[in-house]
Write a structure and sequence with these properties.
The structure is a homodimer. By secondary structure, chain A is an alpha/beta fold. Chain A has 7 helices and 6 strands, in the order βαβααβαβααββα. In chain A, strands 1, 2, 3, 4, 5 and 6 form a 6-stranded parallel beta sheet that branches. In chain A, helix 1 packs parallel to helix 7.
Chain lengths: ~250, ~250
């Protein structure tokens, strides 16, 4: 299978770099074809600007419209086109990053901001006329996985941990990016207490990651609800008979 | 009072730009002193790199350690130092941005990544020896507010809306950045359906924002639990008698 591995750490000699190297070696041994986007090494530009779209800089910039127009006309910036081609080829997409401020480093957020333009990642009209998204985007059939590290312990991101439960912290990424564009989202791989690892901890992290990668195409994805399945009403609010009396991001898991 | 307004939209002629201009005029009329960080206009660099810290590029980069060392030694990059000075002076911080992929645009995420270095925004040891954070950071006493716009309707980010409830979507920012560093977090200002506004809608948005800004220093903040108040156990998990049988990010609101 084709795997796109997106890596967002400034130092390849870091724990993240070592885990990445071990993971890519494992995937290669398993016979997969891996493409990589090492964003720091690529000197990736994370900032959305008018010139991404060949847009007249003196005109008003409406990002969604300008980006979908550029996609249609073939006038998107070259670096965006290259990443989109990698995504099209991928059967699975892995985003690996240190958890900075409970989200992605800016260089990775800007990979998403710039590459997933309207009409590519989302925004295609279905036959019924509504926008294809949430399980029905252009990325349908692909799998997606977050591999992330943090200094704090696993307890701190447990269901009642002080940093907030990991699943809900990652909801904007899992549900709002991956599932929005149609990808099936696997439970994340977390490497916790990353600042104080013993060689044994490191070995366990490498083995744990290899283990998860060996089932990348067989693990059950998170059961997010699809927009097209009649789960939501005309205002895109969850039907009252689903997860009745519940609220918050968790209601979108079936 | 001193207000720092951080603005992250590529086009000042946008709805966001117009709202910003109206807001700054209101704040001025009310007698506040406003400093601005218009990140696109400043051509802000959002990418954390070794040279931010005067760090030897041939050595391994441990971001938290390198940044706190540079803060202590006064060797942080000049643009970071400037933003930190603005934050020190501020009584309230407003982040205004279009909601891109249910989070901040990369240029703004990179403002947080680079400016809130260890030892400035967080990571100071308290007398008891634990790290000062969550209500007890260096930013204590300051107020923080998100002003954001989105194309979708308010229904889509309501408590059971398909995009996920706004309060939980913003938890990584509200709790993980603002509250983490000690700021009091106000309920966000959302400008929804931003792509199809009538002049009347626009007027209502301007008035709504002005209204919220008039109570910036009197509104009740979100009642996040402090780390230091005995709310969490030794593993930083919420005590079982608080929000019993509940789980997820919401348990951190008292």
């Amino acid at each position: 299978m084709n795997i796109l591995w997106v890596f967002a750490h400034p130092d390849t000699r870091s724990l993240n770099g070592a885990l990445r190297d071990a993971a890519l070696a494992e995937l290669g041994k398993a016979g997969h074809r891996v493409e990589q986007s090492d964003l720091y090494r690529m000197n990736w530009n994370p900032v959305v600007r008018a010139d991404d779209y060949g847009h007249d800089p003196t005109g008003r910039l409406h990002v969604a419209t300008a980006s979908s127009t550029a996609l249609r006309r073939g006038s998107l910036a070259e670096d965006i086109v290259t990443e989109q081609a990698k995504l099209r080829r991928a059967d699975a997409v892995v985003l690996q990053f240190p958890l900075w401020w409970f989200s992605m480093p800016a260089i990775l957020k800007g990979w998403v901001d710039r590459v997933f333009v309207e009409g590519f990642g989302y925004g295609i009209r279905s036959e019924g006329g509504s926008t294809r998204r949430y399980g029905d985007g252009l990325m349908s059939g692909k799998r997606a996985l977050v591999v992330t590290s943090m200094g704090g312990s696993e307890y701190t991101v447990s269901t009642r941990g002080i940093n907030g439960s990991l699943e809900e912290l990652l909801f904007p990424i899992h549900h709002g990016i991956f599932w929005y564009t149609g990808m099936s989202v696997l439970p994340p791989v977390l490497v916790a207490s990353a600042d104080r690892m013993t060689p044994k901890d490191y070995r366990a992290a490498v083995d744990g990651l290899a283990d998860r990668l060996s089932t990348l195409f067989t693990d059950s994805p998170i059961a997010y609800r699809s927009q097209s399945g009649g789960n939501y009403d005309e205002n895109f609010v969850l039907r009252s008979d689903l997860a009745p009396d519940e609220f918050g991001v968790r209601v979108h898991v079936g």
